[in-house]
Amino acid sequence: MYCNHCGSQIADQAAICVKCGVATGRGAIGGDATKSTSRILYVLLGIFLGYFGVHNFVAGYTKNAIIQLVITICTCGIGALGVFIWNVVEICTVTKDANGIPFS
Ligand SMILES: [Zn+2]
What we know:
By secondary structure, this protein is mostly helical. It has two domains: 1-36, no CATH class; 37-93, no CATH class. Helix content is 41%, strand content 0%. The protein has four helices and no strands. It has helices spanning 39-48, 54-59, 62-74, 80-93. The N and C termini lie close together (7 Å).
């Protein structure tokens, strides 16, 4: 990955950039904070399983994921069209996970 501050390439698991000493935001609090979400995985899950909010669960956006899951189930799939459009917008605009870590 690359340092948010100076742009140097640093180890994926690094908590602090060795070049400028700025914290990378990883390895801080909680286990999930140490690994970033794959953007490809996010997009694929959003397209194929986005009706159930799976991509949002993976990225840590649990609230949105539950809303999408509930919409799809409670409308017997009719609401999935709306959720699909929502997902397309998310795929195009969301570049970070819920912890603020950019997708890898
Ligand atoms: Zn740096």
